[in-house]
Amino acid sequence: MADPWQKAYDFAVEVAREAGEEIRKAGECEMKVQTKSSTVDLVTKTDERVEKIIIRALKGEFGDGAFIGEESVANGQPCVLSDKPTWIIDPVDGTTNFVHGFPFVAVSIAFAVNKELEFGVVYSCLEDKMYKARKGKGAFCNDEPIQVSDVEEIKKSIIISEHGTDRRKEVVTKIFSTMQKILCIPVHGLRGSGTAATNMCLVATGAVEAFFEIGIHCWDIAAGAVIVQEAGGVLMDVDGGPFDLMSRRMVSANNKKIADRIIKEIEAFDVTRDDAPVQKKE
Ligand SMILES: O=P(O)(O)O[C@H]1[C@H](O)[C@@H](O)[C@H](O)[C@H](O)[C@@H]1O
Ligand SMILES: [Mg+2]
To answer: Per its Swiss-Prot or TrEMBL entry, what cofactor is needed (predicted)?
Structure first.
């Protein structure tokens, strides 16, 4: 079989589009907001419903497989990436934006085999932009090829980062200290769309040179990781080592020179890996 995953890739694009349609419709209605890991880590019925729709559709087409979904993990499902073909899903990336009507919300669906990402689909549903990439086959936005920017000078760059949902003072201090140092290099600007998946697509299109964050989860960045790489960009750990999807730390950039320069300024803080063993409550 020459191309075993093409059908799954095409199907993921269709499922992401349908999920985005659900999100758009739900955004027009009254929503009940709940919280998860902290009072600023929001979740709505739409997040849960859309994840179920996506998983049901994938199971219907391809049978029972391995799934890592943001809301399933929040409800106690394991978050372990094995060698099995695995779908990695964020039904609503940018839930805070969704709740507030801030216009960047994305569906993110990735697929990994032998722990390697095969393809990623990010549907920025309020902008109606469908980003997709398959390993070795290029990256696209609404079927047009996309490529990272060719800027090599950090002083000519725009950098994206986010504040995350951990509001402990020592963490927020490090995040702002890092941002201050990067701003004062100086770079042209700092931005943040409020969705990691969309941020990575902005790196992939060349609108910005880099996006970094500590505290994201594998479902926020798995699809974007393929899209950035296929658009010619690089992925690294915040300490300059190799990118590790489950580590909750990532720098994505148009090239290694920009990534290395940002890494020099990053003040890292501890986060628990996505695949850390779950502590059983006594
Ligand atoms: O909870 P959702 O799926 O909305 O994901 C967001 C993360 O929670 C933030 O840490 C992160 O900063 C990004 O905003 C990210 O995409
Ligand atoms: Mg997310």
So the answer is: Mg(2+)
